[in-house]
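Hello forum,

I keep getting stuck at the same step: I have a sequence, I want structure tokens, and every attempt I make locally crashes halfway through. Rather than fight my setup again tonight, could one of you with a working pipeline run this one for me? It's a single chain of 358 residues.
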Amino acid sequence: MKWRDKKDFVPEKGIDILLVVNMFLTGFDAKTCNTLYVDKNLRYHGLIQAFSRTNRILGQVKSQGNVVCFRNLKEKVDDAIALFSNRDASDQILIEPYQVHVDQFNKAAMDLFQIAATPNAVDKLESEEDILAFVRTFRELMRIRNVLSTFAEFSAEDLVLDPQGFEDYKSKYLDIHDRVKANKDDDQKASIVDEVDFELELIRRDNINVAYILALLASMSSEDADDAEDAEAKQQVVLDLLGSEPRLRSKRELIEEFISSYLPKSKSEEETIETFWQFWKQKQTEAFETLCSEEDLDPDRFNGLLEAFQFSNKAPLTDEVLQAVRTQPGILTRKSVAERIIAKMVSFLERFQEGLGE
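Reply #2:
Ran it on my machine without issues. Output:
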């Protein structure tokens, strides 16, 4: 694809790679741009401008960019940074070498082991101070691991906490997040953990969704499946993902029910997929009817609210919600009723809609 001018470029459309000969620098601002490959003798403002194309952060998901040089630009990089910043600024602009982050991760992991020697030990933490310490320490581990994953030489073997152990601790971390969220929703006594930012963006993986899980389930039920041991291993993978992926945790109960009640009866991949979507639609209908009954909602109007909410990703206004309520609440309870219904809408959409088609 060829652009005659950078204004024609739309980052939201998604680009895998761009080849730049001379220009296309000023004004290019795609936060998802991760790596810049340089095979040109750049210097001063041209170097800074080029390198800056990949330094746009994207929340906790992308904390820095990568620049891969096929020419020796070290001296020119130092000169450019000194000229446009100051001579001692390189450690603020360029991240530390790989081994430094490995050492930081391993130190944080040792701190984690002091708090909870094993993932199961997290369940035995009694004081809020200990739980808070675990949350903060594991969150720091996630931050460092996120940086480590951007290095080409990254290897899990360099870390004292292996990938499975990391996933197990992550599951406990998410359990605490769910518990804190539930306590807030139920207006229970405030906790010192309530205000912690769990930074779930650090552990979201866009390629792990219901469609991915369904593909695993289908392969488990196929008549051509390798053997019972292979199917059992795949089932364990599914169960682990349900506990470790934030977007799947709200769906975990339903998927586990499908695995135990329906999967053994399926004889082929096609049958599994068809049965799953029938099961999913039935559960969605039941949940919708239950919600309408509990809150005395007009089904058609409430369905319209759900569709608008899902499309715009903006919660409806109080008056809009109350228009769907058959028996109008009193003036003093209008706001609380609307907030409760919106919370249930969010829960419903997270459970049945988010991630299904991605």
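The first strand starts at residue 35 and ends at 38. If your local run keeps crashing, start a new thread with the error log.
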